[in-house]
Write a structure and sequence with these properties.
By secondary structure, the chain is mainly β. The chain has helices at about 1-25, 70-75, 210-215, and strands at about 30-40, 45-50, 55, 65, 75-80, 85, 90-95, 95, 105-110, 115-120, 125-130, 140-145, 155-160, 160-165, 175-180, 190, 195-200, 205-210, 220, 225-230, 235, 240, 245-250, 255-260, 265-275, 280-285, 295-300, 300-305.
Length: about 325
């Protein structure tokens, strides 16, 4: 009987020891790893955020919120029903993860009960928070968080509640462009039947149109990197009742304005800097398909007729290409 007793006691001790090993050093806590990203414009690729501020609180978002960006940075919560009551003692603060191959990650060791998480993108002055339901022995939990400073709102929800307290609705300006064509030398100026007119919030010193096909598709290419392209113009123009006159609403001061004469197969672009608080400007553009010239510069416009583009063998090395023209 005594031998059996000591055998049972020894097995129990071994079982307790094994259970302790399985739990690991975190004693039931969760290693919470955050991968913060930023999407700077709509449809753009997500880029890693090199630095964030993050806190965990023993709190719930149904009762607690963040009163200001400054409070978010400082790690201070405010009760939603009792605004004089604040909570400024996080139970955890994020630190760099420090694991090779997993750069731009941040980690917190969290307890095994529900917590409220707060993450601050102090580079773009945004913050987000959410509830996280943690259970015992979860081990490691990896979370991706994407900030979108391009969203034109002060708050939105995508799983987490995101806030941009510094957002201000952009000023809007109407600008007009009169685009006509002269089909024959000394002929009348006529309305173009098939015209496309749009603008990017871009600078022609950095961006160009690589081809007529790209102009039709609304694609611009970075001059220093032909693999970097933008495929969605921010602004589009619409015809008015005045033949040849087009109206466009813009919210950015620096514009790359593009016109495509699809009737005659020509295109043109120009850099324009507008005063969003000023009067509506009107720009003029005349396509002359009868001119046997590849590139023409007129009133700030770079007008291109692809039909006369020289081949590589024919092109004079001193002749400037559309890539080198800035239209400033």
């Amino acid at each position: 009987m005594r031998l059996r007793f000591w055998t049972i006691l020894l097995l129990s001790a071994l079982a307790c020891s094994l259970s302790s090993c399985l739990k690991g050093d975190t004693d039931g806590k969760t290693t919470y790893v955050i991968k913060p990203l930023v999407q700077r414009t709509s449809g753009d690729r997500n880029e890693p955020l090199a630095d964030i501020i993050a806190y965990a609180f023993k709190a719930d978002t149904t009762e607690w919120g963040v009163a200001s960006y400054e409070d978010a940075v400082a790690g201070i919560l405010t009760h939603k029903e009792r605004p004089n009551e604040q909570l400024g003692t996080p139970i955890a603060t994020a630190e760099p993860y420090g694991v090779e191959g997993l750069e731009n990650r941040f980690v917190m060791t969290l307890p095994d009960y529900p917590v409220m998480l707060l993450v601050v993108d102090h580079i773009n002055r945004l913050y987000a928070y959410t509830n996280q339901n943690l259970q015992p022995n979860m081990g490691s939990l990896f979370v991706t968080l994407i900030f979108k400073p391009w969203k034109e709102v002060t708050a939105y929800k995508e799983g987490w509640s995101f806030y941009n307290p510094f957002y201000e609705p952009p000023k809007e300006l109407e600008l007009y462009t009169r685009v006509l064509a002269q089909s024959a030398e000394n002929g009348p100026e006529e309305k173009i039947e098939y015209l496309k007119l749009y603008a990017f919030a871009a600078d022609t010193t950095l961006w160009r149109i690589a081809s007529y096909e790209d102009a039709v598709a609304g694609i611009i290419t970075m001059k220093e990197n032909e693999h970097e392209q933008r495929t969605t113009p921010e602004f589009n123009a619409y015809a008015t009742n005045d033949p040849g006159l087009y109206r466009m609403k813009v919210t950015q001061p620096t514009l790359m304005l593009v016109a495509v004469d699809r009737t005659h197969g020509l295109y043109a672009y120009t850099k324009r800097v507008v005063d969003l608080s000023g009067e509506s400007p009107t720009y003029n553009l005349l396509f002359r398909p009868w001119m046997p010239q590849w590139i023409t510069e007129e009133e700030g416009w770079c007008i291109v007729n692809p039909e006369y583009e020289p081949t590589t063998e024919e092109q004079d090395p001193e002749t400037p290409s559309t890539e080198n023209r800035s239209n400033e």
